[in-house]
UniProtKB/TrEMBL annotation:
This is Dihydromonapterin reductase. The keyword Oxidoreductase applies. Its EC number is 1.5.1.50. It comes from the Bacteria. The gene is folM. It is an enzyme of class 1 (oxidoreductase). Keywords: Oxidoreductase.
Length: 239
């Protein structure tokens, strides 16, 4: 059996698209989910190992790591996709909001990376090629966000973890991040919001999950890129 790729938060949207892509390539995967959507059942039927994970507490993170190690002795890669789009307007408990954003976007990857380095090192030793850690950050790492202050800060922390872990684990594990802006709209987004958002980038399109898949495939194939953030923003930084 090939060493699996771990994808956190793969029950929907980008994570789900990544999971389906890797399965179509014959790549073994382990995914985490918070809510068991029908898509999780479908992934399981296709051969994915699907683990419920509660990253809202240190105990939940530790429990997941313990269960993960019962399922595999090695990992080809870890893709940190689990995320929350909570914001100050929706959550007036700013203290709780900040802690939650930092926990899901920074502390969870930090603890998983430290605890699972041995699994990645095992793959590297067996395959004689680097393993990978890939963080999904956000375009707002560069700019901040007045409407998502805690979210932006936590993604910036994750971006910094990319640099630190890449230096710590080189040359055996490459550590990079992918920093998207708009990838796919939500079903409830109205036409006015969609039109306004599309104007924020030079390319002016809803690119779809394939752009993230392509970016992650590039990083996985590379033997040289590490400690970098790959922007997938349609030239938004120039608008």
């Amino acid at each position: 059996m090939t060493s699996p790729i771990l994808i956190t938060g793969a029950g929907q949207r980008i994570g789900l698209a990544l999971a389906k892509h890797f399965l179509s390539q014959g790549q073994a995967i382990i995914i985490t989910y918070r809510t068991r959507h029908r898509a999780v059942d479908e992934l399981e039927q296709q051969g994915a190992v699907c683990l419920h994970a509660d990253f809202s507490s240190d105990a939940g993170i530790a429990s997941f790591i313990e269960i993960l190690k019962q399922h595999t002795h090695s990992l080809r890669a870890i893709v940190h996709n689990a995320s929350s789009w909570d914001c100050e307007a929706s959550n007036p408990d700013f203290s709780s909001l900040f802690d939650n954003m930092m926990r899901i976007h920074a502390k969870t990857p930090y603890l998983i990376n430290n605890a699972c380095a041995e699994l990645l090192m095992t793959y590297q030793a067996e395959a004689c090629t680097p393993a990978d850690i890939i963080h999904l950050t956000d375009y707002v790492v560069e700019t901040g966000s007045p409407k998502h202050i805690a979210y932006a800060a936590s993604k910036a922390a994750l971006d910094n973890l990319t640099k630190s872990f890449s230096a710590k684990y080189a040359p055996n594990i490459k550590v990079n991040s992918v920093a998207p802006s708009l990838i796919i709209f939500n079903e409830h987004d109205d036409e006015a919001y969609r039109a306004k958002t599309l104007k924020k980038s030079l390319m002016g399109i809803e690119p779809g999950c394939q752009e993230i898949i392509n970016s992650i495939d590039l990083l996985l194939r590379s033997h040289y890129i590490t400690g970098r953030a790959l922007p997938v923003d349609g030239g938004r930084h120039l608008k």
